[in-house]
Amino acid sequence: GENVEQHPSTLSVQEGDSAVIKCTYSDSASNYFPWYKQELGKGPQLIIDIRSNVGEKKDQRIAVTLNKTAKHFSLHITETQPEDSAVYFCAASIISGNTGKLIFGQGTTLQVKP
Amino acid sequence: NAGVTQTPKFQVLKTGQSMTLQCAQDMNHNSMYWYRQDPGMGLRLIYYSASEGTTDKGEVPNGYNVSRLNKREFSLRLESAAPSQTSVYFCASRDFDTQYFGPGTRLTVL
Questions:
Q1: To probe the interface with B, which of A30, A35, A39, A104 has the most B CB atoms within 10 Å?
Q2: Cβ separation of B97 and A44 shorter than 8 Å?
Q3: What is the pLDDT of residue A97?
Q4: Which residues, in sequence order, are bridge partners of residue B4?
Q5: What mean pLDDT comes out for the span B72-89?
Q6: Cis bond before residue A82 (omega within 30° of 0)
Q7: CA–CA distance, B91 with B74 (Å, rounded to integer)
């Protein structure tokens, strides 16, 4: 089955710097890659996603890149702010049928220091 | 529109006790999911329901049962709780590709 590895497990940056979180997946059939942000005491919330027919997607300060050949995808946060501090999860899925099952990475705790 | 709601927020059980975690969504989504979250392991799928009337096992179903009561509600039952089931449990529902998560239930089994 699918396996998703996420690195680093913790990341500390200064406010204004960029942060990059990387994930690799094992199943070449995976074609949907969402990123979730989880604030303390809350459930994960989707912040951006990418499908396998696209190499890059941006939404303001957040971008995701996908390399299908190497089976890895990355989350880029520019101009980080203290409110970006949270746990970030990548996930992979095969969009087929009606299951929508997600396989999550282990999570990255991002700390943005003011 | 409350989204996905879960009850209770916190629960402490003794080994061998049973309990049911409740989940409801008001977004008219067909698919619903139960995950557990443990430190350093991300979220792992326990069970899911692709549509009302169907349920299927995920990655870690042992020790759990589920019921899709109707389109809105999807419950998770622990018949005989074990310390290994100490975790934070999240319910989610899905619209197209996006899953929407509830606030979670923190369960401790002593």
A1: A104
A2: no
A3: 59
A4: B25
A5: 97
A6: no
A7: 8
A95 vs B: CB within 8 A? yes
Q: Is the dihedral of CA B31, A98, A101, A71 positive or negative?
A: negative
Nearest-CA residue of chain A relative to B58?
A101
Tokens of A40: 């303390």
In the predicted model, residues of chain A with pLDDT beneath 70 are 96-98
User: Per-residue pLDDT tens for A87-114?
Assistant: 999 999 887 656 778 999 999 999 999 9
Closest-CA residue of A relative to B46 is A101
Summarize pLDDT for B45-65 with one digit per residue, the tens. Answer: 999 999 898 999 999 999 999
Give me the residue from A34, A93, A104 closest to B42, CB to CB.
A104
B53 and A CB contact within 8 Å:
no
How many Å apart are CA A4 and CA A84, to the nearest integer?
A: 23
Q: Is A84 helix (H, G, I), strand (E, B) or coil?
A: helix
